[in-house]
Amino acid sequence: MTQPTPQQEPLWRRYQEPDDRGLIDDVCDGLRLITEPGPDDPGQILALAIVGAEAAEGLAAALEDEWALYTPQQAAVTASALFAQIAAAGAALEKLSDCLDVMAGRGEITASDYDGAGEAERLCTAQTVLGAAGQEAFGAIDAHDCDEAVDILATTPYTGPLPVSTHETFVQLAGLLGESAKLIPGCRPPAEAVSPARDYEDGCGCRIELTDRDSIVWDFHRSDGTWYFMPLADATLSGRPLAGKELSMTQACPHPQHLALLVQQTLSAAEA
Questions:
Q1: Cα gap 75→140, rounded to integer Å
Q2: 193-251 pLDDT per residue, tens
Q3: Mean pLDDT of the chain
Q4: Which long-range contacts does 81-86 make (Cβ < 8 Å, 24+ apart)?
Q5: Cα 217 from Cα 180, distance rounded (Å)
Q6: What are phi and psi of 201, to 5 degrees?
Q7: Predicted confidence (pLDDT) per residue in 28-54, tens digit
Q8: Does this model's pTM top 0.85?
Q9: Which residues are CB-neighbours of 94 under 8 A, at least 6 positions away?
Q10: Helices (DSSP H) in the chain: which residue ranges?
């Protein structure tokens, strides 16, 4: 007999970050301290529930931004993870209902009973809501349809101008910033010898000098896994002190238009 093909892991489990910043591991490490050995007490269960809610709410808010995602492939990974969250939430709600039965079995709470009165009837209502919500979450997920949607997103052609190295990022950014920006070459040759980890940390060695409307020159470069925007003067002509800025963007190869917007916003804030 032909053996069935092992089911492939969902896309979100197979995803690998294109750079070496290890952001996913950094974010998930605290959770894995609990989930990998398994929770040992109710406090850890509550922590998992609350962190999950914060993550879901934060994601929903973040996706409102125009630059939340760059490619259909990133949307595919996000959708794959969200489908898993919905299914897991449905299972968790049903198991939560079971937890109440266990407490009742220990004689520590009133056993739920539709035909009962007072607390027994109230608990039955709560369990019914938990079970129904869990089943509704499961019903919202059709594994075949979800897999198909993720596959469509993952294979949708993308023709955007995403750079593949910090050097390409600098070149494209300088072109977008216009005449006020000057690319200062500083690559460490050969470019191919720069590892992803080194490129993420310190970039290619290039930088951009950007002149603002007050003729102050700012130096834009990458170091320590961060984009820095530093003035090449201590103060303006009027004596106002100047200070360097760190961009909130940490990705080494962001969409150049997104990075240009952040640079312009940082420059406007520095001029204010």
A1: 19
A2: 678 888 899 898 999 999 988 889 999 999 999 999 999 988 877 778 888 899 989 89
A3: 90
A4: 81/12, 83/10, 83/141, 83/146, 83/150, 84/10, 84/12, 85/52, 85/56, 86/137, 86/140, 86/141
A5: 9
A6: -70, -55
A7: 999 999 999 999 999 999 999 999 999
A8: yes
A9: 130, 131, 134, 135
A10: 11-14, 23-35, 42-62, 72-105, 119-139, 143-154, 166-177, 196-202, 256-271
- Specify the residue for token string 């489990």: 13
Greatest pairwise CA separation for the chain in angstroms? 84
Handedness of CA 135, 139, 141, 142 (dihedral sign): positive
Amino acid identity, residue 40?
Answer: D
Q: Which two tokens stand for residue 50?
A: 């609350």
What average pLDDT does this structure show over 154-160? 95
Q: How do strand 181-184 and strand 207-211 relate by DSSP bridges?
A: antiparallel
Which is higher by pLDDT, 137 or 8? 137
Spatial distance between the Cα atoms of 67 and 24, rounded to a whole number of angstroms:
19
